[in-house]
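Most newcomers find our protein records easier to grasp once they have seen one. Sequence and backbone structure share a record, each on its own labelled line. To make this concrete, we reproduce a full record directly below:
***
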Amino acid sequence: MTAGVVGRTGAIGRIGVIGVIANPNSRVHRRDPDHVQQLVRVLGDRGTVVQTPSIDEVRRAAERFRADGIDVLGISGGDGTIAHTLTGVLAVYGDAPLPRIAFLSAGTVNTIPRGLGLTLDGPAMLRRILAGEVRIDRRHILQIGDMNGFIFGSGAIAQFCEAYYETGAPSAAMSARLLARAVGSAFVRGPFSRRLMARFKARVTVDGERWPIDDFAIVMAGTVPELGLGSRPFYRCDERPGHFALLGIHCGAAGLAVELPRVFRGVGMDPRKVIDVVARDAVIEADAPFQFVVDGDLIRSEGTLRVRTGPLLELLLPAA
């Protein structure tokens, strides 16, 4: 059992029909054109693999899988693929029972699967599923405006992602280099730090109660523990069923930099620097449009955004 949350994990019974949605634009698929065929060979006659290069194709695949009554939905792609696929699938299924979800990692960083302890590649994970060597992790997804995802970030999180993609060479190593650059810049008040830490001014109302601060470096939320690179700011995500971890960091760059060791250990920051709560519903009202991140993808809000607890999913993870 996951500590503190009764009934979150459990064993799985017989594995039925499997449907796999594969994003051909993900990093692994681009580098290895045979990767999809590997999934097809592993799956054999136990299901179907559909390549979905667009959101419309995701919806069509979801409609097909709902009609076929699949038991497991595999998602082959990176973190952004997971968010866009689940957004499409949840829209198609509506109130109908959802299939169990399996992450068949094929992205650049795979933050969400790795944060849940999944380090297997797609074919290896699919073999585990077919052998029944998996367990169920029951976990809510977030509803972020019209999107679904496990991680939301605004302010410095969005600015960091923008700088990361500007490099043209996204990777875990590049992300680590940018983080080191940001920390160094923070202590000398350099231009990179000033860019990342441009203040995010917004009124935040959480479960009907207005936060007393409206000037932030970061507002972020998650239903998984990790944000990336092993950092664990959402250490409270499993604290209460139906809730997510929500943080409003309002200190400056140097103040945040000295808190990073605590963030990586998965313990609370200095409460003078952050509002750190668990929540079911948050409304963010900014005076101007702003960028935010859903599972690594940059999206634009026109000024008001609602983040709330989304549907409860049954995720398949390797058995211990």
Notes: Residues 172-188 form the longest helix (17 residues). Residues 151-294 form a domain with the Tumour Suppressor Smad4 fold (CATH 2.60.200.40). The mean pLDDT is 91.
